[in-house]
Amino acid sequence: xxxxxxxxxxxxxxxxxxxxxxxxxxxxxxxxxxxxxxxxxxxxxxxxxxxxxxxxxxxxxxxxxxxxxxxxxxxxxxxxxxxxxxxxxxxxxxxxxxxxxxxxxxxxxxxxxxxxxxxxxxxxxxxxxxxxxxxxxxxxxxxxxxxxxxxxxxxxxxxxxxxxxxxxxxxxxxxxxxxxxxxxxxxxxxxxxxxxxxxxxxxxxxxxxxxxxxxxxxxxxxxxxxxxxxxxxxxxxxxxxxxxxxxxxxxxxxxxxxxxxxxxxxxxxxxxxxxxxxxxxx
Length: 282
Prior knowledge:
With 282 residues, this protein is of the alpha+beta class. The protein has helices at 2-8, 25-29, 33-45, 61-67, 79-91, 97-105, 113-127, 135-149, 158-161, 192-206, 215-220, 225-228, 233-241, 243-246, 269-280; strands spanning 14-16, 49-51, 56-59, 111-112, 172-176, 179-182, 212-214, 251-256, 259-264. The strands form 3 sheets. The chain has a 3-stranded antiparallel sheet with strand order 1-3-2. A 3-stranded antiparallel sheet has the order 4-6-5. It has a 3-stranded antiparallel sheet with strand order 7-9-8. Helix 1 (2-8) packs across helix 3 (33-45), helix 7 (113-127) crosses helix 8 and helix 10 runs antiparallel to helix 15. The mean pLDDT is 93.
């Protein structure tokens, strides 16, 4: 419920930054001081809030539609809310370098946290060579990321094995203690509308000026829906076939003479993306 807590702290679509640092923040949010900082972080990372000025955050249009009382999913019960959060973290890397790296750069069939740590450290260094990150910081961040999708079966406290928001997506599982693997293939809870939203988002970031995009890009490129959602080729093709009807012709799929492409009409991609979000909630 942290995303909802952050949203409910807004007034007229704005949240003062002092909301998270004031003396009464603990009482307002009903959590400890460190968790208040975590609520702010995840609200920004999951695109509930965005930086607006030195003094305030703005509530995003998507959060307004989804999390307001009477909205599409105010209590984060619909899988589309979790898929949207996953896309922000792993597809776009919003304040979540480890999430982006794990889903876009790790190709091993199985892996452990210890095996991943050196590669993550090298990736972080390539982004900012001047900033030194301690091994313990990287290890904790990686553990948090893995447990966001594959929670412990048991633990010392309820928080250690409570089902996290992203755990319901079935993207990652623990084969045996400390050894993890991605679960590739169809994702029944991923709505075609959310897939189309992610496709448009990826398109605008990777090839905004192009009117067509190759299947290989959508399936395998870094930051693509196929890679971030861990879909197999058949699952992607099925979803692409549904695009024309879903988007009223704004997007269409062709597979002729071995050339597989998605085509885009001259459209306002942002408006279409917003429509696809609404479709994702039925």
